[in-house]
Design a protein that fits this description.
Structural class of chain B: mainly alpha
Distance between the termini of chain A: 32 Å
Strand order of the largest sheet of chain A: 6-7-8-3-9-10
Number of domains of chain B: 1
Radius of gyration of chain B: 18 Å
Largest interface: A-B, 23 and 18 residues
Helix content of chain A: 25-40%
Structural class of chain A: alpha/beta
Shape of chain A: globular
Largest sheet of chain B: none
Shape of chain B: globular
Number of helices of chain A: 10
Order of helices and strands of chain A: EEEHEEHEHHHEHEHEEHEEHEH
Radius of gyration of chain A: 22 Å
Oligomer: heterodimer
Chain lengths: ~280, ~230
């Protein structure tokens, strides 16, 4: 569905993407993780044909991105943080413009609004919407023409947990319909929860690629198990055979209040690989 | 054609909700209706206010409207969304240009009707206005493309509007200003409207108007090549 081979991008003399390789299959949710300024938005812009690149190749829908026709572009849905809405228009009118461009019947507009939970706000001007509602309206605009590939640039950035959860559910629903989703985020929880595969991007370079589970397992050097007992003690065991009998006996005696393995998360993997936090610039 | 119509419709709907732009379109026709029907002074040229406000209308409304519409869409990134939805830049510019031209022609029609021109004069008046609007739209589009945001567009367009609207007006009272005003298309259009004759168009004026149009077309082309609709 999406193939990126050895893509390089410079702004003036500053290299912002260095030899990017990616392959994203149909129906997959792919997450590009990185701190602000890592090159996530630049890569999305290249993939969607908004930016030229110096070296390498990008294939979308089995075609070079440079050869995509108007009809091909209609198979893409793009939501970028900076993409605007018509502030003086109501939610309904904002969608109607694009429904006409995509030749979509008006009932689909209503359907899209109700899908993102904005049916009641249909007649409210976009300038009066909260940030979360604006994001949902942008999502409705992206989903309305049922694209095959959806690009989402930090779709939940700055939103409250409830709105973020609602957006996650919509993204999962789209995946279940067979959509391929490419999303950028610096929220490792979001990536772990949603993505089939992730790539960790740092200073324009992919430093790790795989499923979130695979990556976390790969960097699980400590391999410790932590127990908290009812008497308040915290015990730390090696994740090895020798510890099993001791843990088992504690469990049998019903002394264990909580038990945790100490696997790293994507945040700690990123920190280990780059010395930077994913959210260090936020 | 379909996308041009969509942009046209969108803009029509937007204008009704955008008072700043709406006032630009209504102000001069309204002032003409009021002044033509309320002030009659001895020695005043025939249809004085209609001709005066018509030139100001040409020099202000399309210029301000087009530059404001394009720069606002750029600033708010709605233009990028349209382009990503496969609206071609030329379709967008045609849609906006055609819309502003149509609304201005409607305003010119109101001025024409309020002035009680005869049939022939009315057609002449509308033709001159249509030509003037086209050149102003071109200039406004160039500013809109060059400007990064609405504020920048306004600061560029204001002095342009002053020159194009007020110079022809002041030239009525000052010969030195008249010499300068004559090199602008609005200055020439004022002469044409005051004489209400095709002869002038076919002689000197058309050269100056043509040069003005070519200059704005060149500016538009340079702006578009440099910035596109980014």
């Amino acid at each position: 569905m999406i193939e990126v081979n050895n893509v390089h991008k410079k702004f003036n003399q500053k290299v912002v993407l260095k030899g990017i390789h990616l392959k994203i299959s149909k129906g997959e949710i792919f997450g590009l993780l990185g701190p602000s300024g890592a090159g996530k938005t630049t890569l999305i812009k290249i993939l969607t044909g908004q930016l030229e690149f110096e070296e390498g190749s990008v294939k979308i829908l089995n075609k070079s991105v440079k050869e995509l026709t108007g009809e091909d572009r209609k198979k893409l849905g793009i939501m970028m943080e900076q993409f605007g809405l018509y502030d003086r228009f109501s939610c309904m009118d904002n969608l109607k413009i694009f429904a006409e461009i995509y030749r979509i019947p008006y009932n689909k507009v209503k359907e899209s609004l109700s899908m993102v939970g904005l049916e009641a706000a249909a007649k409210i001007p976009a300038c009066k919407l909260s940030k979360g509602m604006r994001s949902r309206l942008q999502l409705a605009r992206v989903f309305m023409h049922t694209p095959q590939i959806i690009f989402l640039d930090e779709p939940t950035s700055g939103l409250d947990p409830a709105t973020s959860r609602a957006i996650h559910q919509m993204i999962i629903a789209k995946k279940e319909e067979g959509c391929t989703i490419f999303l950028t985020t610096h929220d490792m929880e979001e990536a772990t929860k949603l993505c089939d595969h992730v790539a960790l991007l740092n200073e324009g370079k992919i430093v790790e690629y795989g499923s979130p589970q695979e990556i976390c397992t790969k960097y699980n050097h400590q391999k410790r198990i932590r127990l908290r007992l009812y008497d308040g003690r915290n015990l730390d065991f090696a994740h090895a055979k020798d510890s099993a009998s001791e843990i088992y006996s504690l469990l049998l005696k019903e002394q264990v209040e909580t038990i945790h393995s100490s696997e790293p998360n994507l945040e700690t993997v990123f920190l280990e690989l780059t010395g930077r936090c994913l959210q260090d610039n936020e | 054609m379909r996308n041009i119509c969509i942009i046209f419709k969108k803009q029509l709907k937007d204008t009704l909700k955008n008072k700043t732009i709406l006032i630009q379109f209504i102000l001069f026709p309204l002032m003409t209706v009021v002044m033509e029907n309320s002030i009659q002074l001895e020695g005043m040229a025939e249809h004085f206010f209609a001709k005066l406000f018509s030139i100001m209308y040409i020099g202000m409304a399309p210029l301000a409207a087009v530059s404001s519409i394009i720069s606002e869409e750029k600033e708010k990134n709605t233009l990028r969304v349209l382009i990503m939805a496969n609206v071609k830049p030329w379709q967008y510019l045609m849609g906006i240009g055609l819309y502003v031209w149509s609304i201005c022609m409607l305003g010119a029609g109101v001025i024409g009707l309020a002035t009680a021109f005869n049939h022939e004069q009315f057609i002449f008046f509308m033709s001159v206005m249509g030509l003037g609007f086209m050149i102003s739209i071109l200039a406004g589009a160039a500013v809109g493309i060059l400007a990064h945001n609405q504020m920048m567009a306004t600061s560029v367009v204001m002095p342009m509007m002053m020159v194009l609207s007020f110079l022809p007006m002041i030239s009525m009272f000052n010969e030195k200003v008249e010499k300068v005003a004559k090199i602008t298309y609005t200055g020439q259009l004022r002469e044409i409207l005051y004489n209400m004759s095709w002869d002038l168009i076919l002689n000197n004026s058309i050269v100056v108007i043509g040069i003005n149009a070519i200059c704005f077309l060149a500016l538009f082309t340079i702006a578009y090549r440099k910035n596109g609709l980014e």
